[in-house]
Every structure is written in structure tokens, then in C-alpha cells.
Amino acid sequence: MITSIYIDVKRKMTTSEGDRTLHIEKEISGGEFICLVGHSGSGKTTLLRMLSGLVTPDEGMIRVGSEIWFDSRRKVNFKPQQRSIAYMFQDFALFPNMSVEENICFAQKKRDKTKVNELLNIFGMNGLAKQKPSKLSGGQKQRVALARALASSPSILLLDEPLSAIDQEMRNLLQCEILKAHEYLAATSIMVTHDMHEANHMATEIVKIKNGLIVEQDETDCTCLR
Questions:
Q1: How many domains does the chain have?
Q2: Higher pLDDT, 88 or 63
């Protein structure tokens, strides 16, 4: 389901350069792939965490489709498990005691082995289903994390610098895997990156954040998602 997002939130932040207020007002059309760029401490990851429910805004509203996820005036605040999101962290956050297959299954409220097998096939991991994360390369771990993100069929895919710890050759390959995941879900995706080349290659729109504010928004000439 392609879902639009409306955000108008404020949150006080403490950064290396002092206290600031993150104030983001943004409407995102369903199916877009947004890249957030900006210096460390600008508020990019805090925005993702507010969307996911891991951080509560001081005030404002988050509306996804016709559903209100957060509204400070009405005292509405959906818990993370009530929000149809998948969140990919920098470190993949795989469970070391679980196999590849079990890691993917963990994201499902109701186990669907057919969907798990489909995801293993999409990301070329059929032969790795029983392996533990410690036996996988960085690129393989990334694919497992992507497959797990898709397993619950979320409306929104949030990615916090998912390629920052990978060499350039593997990074180029996994950019394609992330776009494949975005298209597979027919989701709205928001990714944090410091790499402008990556943002230009992947995003339908680049949003630049500085000192807690959106300072520039640019549609890209990316045709990979159109």
C-alpha cells in the first residue's frame, strides 16, 4: 500500500554545538524515495526515530495516509509496534543466535513461510537460510536485514545510513538491492545518507537538513524509480 506522510514536529536536541530545536514540516507523497542529507547532529536520525515512535516529539503531528500516528494536542501517540514501519539500522541489528531464516521470520506477526522463501529467493540467499549471522559477509548481512524489513509488509521503510560500513563495490550493488526492496513493497522510503552521489542515484527527492531545519529540497533526475 503506497502511503503519504505529513510531518509537522518539534523536538529539542542537544548537539556538540549546543542546544537546538529540530522543527520539520514536510509532506511526502506515497511511493517516494526521500534521502535526508546533512551534517552529523542536524537531526536526520532523530526525524527517523520520531517517525518510528522510538522518540516522541515535544509537539506537533505525524499523519500517515488518513491515520494520525502522533498529535500532541489530542494526546495521540502510537507505539512503534502500532506503526506500519520497517527500520533498518546502521549495524543491521541481526540476532546472532538465530539463523538467516529465523531472523526474517522474527519480523512477522504471523509466520508466513511462503513469503520468507520468496524473500530468500529475491535476495539470492536460498543457500544461506540455516546460516548464523557470524558466518555471513557484510553484504550478506545487509541482504538479511533488508529481507527482514520486508517480511512484515510495512507501509514505510526507514533506513539510517545502511551502507556506511560497506566498501564501495558492495555499496553500489546494495544500492540496487535497496531500490529493489522499495519497489517490492510499493512503499514510501526515507533514507539517511552522507553521500550526495548515493542520494542523487537513489532518491526521487533530496531533503537537506541543517541545524534542525529543512534548508533545501530538490527533486532529482533519478529515473530508476519512475
A1: 1
A2: 63
